Amino acid sequence: MMKLTKYVDPLPRLDTLEPIGELDGVPYYEVHMRQVKQKLHRDLPPTTVWGFEGKFPGPVFDVDRYEPIKVKWINDLPDKHLLPVDTTIHGAGPNEPRVRTVIHLHGGVVEPESDGYPEAWYTNGYKEVGPFFEREIYDYPNIQRGATLWYHSHAMGITRLNVYAGLAGPYIIRSPREAFLNLPIGCYEMPLLIQDRSFNDDGSLYYPSEPDPPIPGVDPSVVSDFFGENILVNGKVWPYLEVEPRKYRFRIINGSNSRFYRMRLSSNQPFYQIGTDDGFLNSPVMTEEILLAPAERADVILDFSGQMGEEIVLTNDAPSSFPNGEPVDQDTTGQIMQFRVTVPLKCPDRSRIPYRLTKIIPLRESEADTIRYLTLVRNEDQYGRAFLLLDDERWMEPISIAPKLGDIEVWNLINVANSTHPIHLHLVSLLILDRQPFDVDHFKETGEIVMTGPAVLPDLNERGWKDTVRANPGEITRFITRFVPFSGLYVWHCHILEHEDHEMMRPYEVLINDTME
Ligand code: C2O
Ligand code: CU
Ligand code: CU
Asked: What mean pLDDT is reported for the chain?
């Protein structure tokens, strides 16, 4: 495959979706998923992708807190999948329709029927539907904190393929209080959705049809992870953005299947991180480095004032897989995008980096109703393929996690595998308590936890509400959360999509306590 020249295409500004009308008194959106051709780089022929409203990535939802909306996600995709479907993995069997989709609002606090349960998929024209939650119009109450969420396909066994084909986009919730913070807004604020992709010479998306070496008797076969050779932001390969010498707010989303990004700015200037996955930090965190696993978000302010004429590269040095895999190639995957400070200041920059952003009220460990110990563990499937499991359980096994509505729980993620897994829970936001190294071999032999070092508090820029938490190998990662405000069926999973599709996902159920009925 040819090497693509960096920084020849401007960063696309994603469209904002508009409702088509009202339904039951709230704004109503219809969003079509379609196969389209799109130019992803100056020198690439148009690439066939799956987009929302014909766009990859999908347009932005920009909504206000406490203002509910309704969305009908319409599957207008072709009958043939764009990418190789492995029919040996659970939920994607030979009798299932190949092209299925269901949309999940990642980070969204929504009822189970609107959450995009993996088995609530449906085909083109809603002709066939999966076994769960038949509901065509989803409710998004937007009752949660202002935050950068994102929406993406979540269909059982083919999420990695649907998202790689293009089915993802940003969803922004603004709290009314936010207006008083005087952050950069309008054209000085934008989402940056980072994804990696590989291409064939004809411009088509490349995604492996089997691992190397191949698995005898399984073709196509899921791979254990996938790292694209090109880095795209908002659907362009290595774009540049011309900026004014002033402050900007970027909502960075890692929408990649497997790739982590450990970002810096080539100018060595800091990021002022103001928010995590699900809301503001207490105060901005000034940091020269931000690490995002798949599905994590960072809300940041960059200040380009006094930098007229400079070209600043957003770099990446996260090995793939993380943290012990291949180093990046400085010239390609080691770079993400470029900021060119070339546009004269249109008016004085009156935006601010406030000293205080919010007041996070932590959940107290002493109030936890349940403490869980859950392993992240490698195993082998019937074809001899290595795969990963949550607490050694597969999707099909009976539900083993069923908190009562309102319960506070502490989860200990015991990672005995050899890479970091970004663990995501639907419905809830969580706070990371700490991470502590333990004796993996001893644990594997005896099931007993022996710590080998002190517990370390989360990074300063992780001390906010999150929905996706990095569980590092050889460490026990603890978080605390409260199961509110809805009951019913949800999922938790690793957000490395190749892992999620290959059994690293489990349902859980929030139960209604009978005293509440
Ligand atoms: Cu972003 Cu269950 O997913
Ligand atoms: Cu989610
Ligand atoms: Cu994983």
From this structure: 97
